[in-house]
Design goal:
Oligomer: single chain
Number of strands: 20
Strand content: 15-25%
Number of domains: 2
Shape: globular
Distance between the termini: 58 Å
CATH topology of the largest domain: Aldehyde Dehydrogenase, Chain A, domain 1
CATH architecture of the largest domain: 3-Layer(aba) Sandwich
Helix content: 40-55%
Structural class: alpha/beta
Radius of gyration: 23 Å
CATH class of the largest domain: Alpha Beta
CATH superfamily of the largest domain: Aldehyde Dehydrogenase, Chain A, domain 1
Strand order of the largest sheet: 12-15-16-11-10-17-18
Largest sheet: 7 strands, mixed
């Protein structure tokens, strides 16, 4: 996959101060070298974006919609080669990389569709006596320069959810990908810039800078940046929120997603959801099933059914179509997950299956009765580990789910409408999913969390709202 050397900063590509190896997590081989930027290059990118912001904000709606739609089509055409690259740089199973890219295409197309819905409305000012004779209306205006910082696990999709709404809103955007997985994002940015230039828009409306935390800090603290959209860990997100203030922040900070199983649930469907939803992307997804909370009437049978299904989860080379779990992003991540499993067992948790390596990979793991306070239960484990707890009733289940400091997505399995509606009412999360995995996400829906799972919402319509401001007009004819 070809694109210019260096980094896309300004309207062209500039030499990077250095390079770093990008390795295939499954066997550690080097697949290429990525350009590495620095804080000076980050500042240069912000200054260029600031110079462009009025021009980008003035791009006609038909141009923005055209560019976004063409990117969607180009991305669909490039899907086979991008899948190959994603598998190699993320180590994620092929099936998950294919899903990521199909969702990315849908995200760009949805952003194109939303351009037509970016409008305001009139305001009846004469509802107050002081407004008699006045005409009022409001419009939505681009907020300005946007910085998008993405995680390593879904690099193209996360970058798409930063870039596409920003362009739809009329904002120049600077993307900082995760250091471990920059290559596919570089290819995407090159594709977008080509479409911008072909439409007569400035290519520099989209820029990309790689690098370490200092690069990120230079971006989020720059006074000319208007909004920061970040996907990653809670600890880093909290620091970004402090550093970025008073700029707008959209923070998607992960979770330890729960799946509640009621006494009337279809246990085969629930077990299938745990297996499908707990181990996809090798467990490196913020809304993968991490905690299963089952009422005691069905917990024992549910555990048997999950355990019986786990041997079906194929572990191995992510390039193979049948693989469902492969190596985590790096050795440090693998050791962290193994340590949390060992800590949980030492604290009294029961190992049902897994907890060991298969080469560089982790065998899909099921733990039961993990005590409160253990990181495997309390924190985001980001690996192929599911924890099962038993509760006496639904009240206890919902209370246990809500006791977490996170709240992104929660799933509930039940045949009863009142149980489902109660879950929607009582569970403290950005999304409640009934009779499906908590990892279900529609890319056009509002997506985000509460508590330590973040602030703001993604999904093109909702991200555009985050990246625009209302401007009120009052006219006395």
């Amino acid at each position: 996959m070809t694109y210019p050397e260096g980094l896309p900063v300004g309207d062209g590509w500039v030499p990077a101060p250095g390079t770093a190896a990008v390795t295939f997590p499954y066997d550690g081989t080097e697949i290429g070298r990525a350009p590495v930027g620095d804080a000076a290059l980050a500042l240069r990118a912000v200054e260029h974006a600031d110079r462009l912001r009025r021009r980008v904000g003035a791009l006609p709606a038909h141009v923005r919609r055209q560019v976004l739609g063409e990117v969607a089509r180009d991305l669909a055409d490039a899907l086979p080669e991008l899948v190959e690259l994603l598998v190699l740089e993320t180590g994620k199973p092929r099936v998950d990389c294919e899903v990521e890219l199909r969702r990315s295409v849908a995200t760009w197309q949805a952003a194109a569709d939303e351009v037509a819905h970016l409008h305001g409305e009139t305001v009846p000012l004469d509802i107050q006596a002081s407004g008699e004779g006045l005409f009022g209306f409001w419009t939505r205006r681009p907020v300005g320069v946007v910085v998008g910082i993405t995680g390593f696990n879904y690099p193209v999709l996360l970058a798409s959810h930063k870039m596409a709404p920003a362009l739809a809103a009329g904002c120049p955007v600077i993307v900082k990908p995760a250091p471990a997985t920059p290559l596919a994002t570089l290819r995407l940015v090159h594709l977008v810039r080509e479409r911008l230039a072909a439409a007569g828009a400035p290519a520099g409306a989209v820029q990309l800078v790689t690098g370490d935390a200092e690069v990120g800090r230079a971006l989020v603290t720059h006074p000319r940046v208007a909004a920061v959209s970040f996907t990653g860990s809670a600890a880093v997100g909290h620091r970004i929120a402090r550093d970025a203030a008073p700029r707008r922040t959209v923070l998607e900070l992960g979770s330890n997603a729960a799946l509640v199983v009621a006494a009337d649930a279809d246990l085969d469907a629930a077990a299938d959801a745990v297996v499908r939803g707990g181990y996809y992307a090798s467990g490196q997804a913020c809304i993968s099933v991490q905690r299963v909370v089952a009422v005691d009437e069905v917990a024992g049978e549910l555990e048997k059914r999950i355990a019986a299904r786990l041997p079906e989860v194929t572990v191995g080379d992510p390039r193979d179509a049948g693989t469902r779990v492969s190596a985590l992003v790096d050795e440090a991540a693998t050791e962290r997950v193994l340590d949390r499993v060992a800590r949980a067992r030492a604290a009294g948790a029961r190992l049902v299956r897994g907890g060991v390596r298969a080469g560089r990979c982790l065998v899909p793991t099921l733990l039961a009765d993990v005590p409160d306070g253990e990181p495997a239960w309390e924190e985001e484990i980001f690996g192929p580990v599911v924890c099962l707890r038993v509760v006496p009733d639904l009240t206890a289940a919902y209370d246990l789910v809500n006791a977490s400091r996170y709240g992104l997505h929660v799933a509930v399995f039940t045949r009863a409408l009142n149980t489902a509606l109660r879950a929607v009412e009582e569970l403290e999360a950005g999304g409640v999913v009934v009779n499906e995995v908590p990892g279900y996400r529609s890319d056009i829906a509002p997506y985000g969390g509460v508590k330590d799972s973040g602030t703001g919402r993604e999904g093109p319509r909702f991200a555009i709202e985050e990246l625009t401001v209302t401007r009120m007009a009052v006219i006395r004819p």
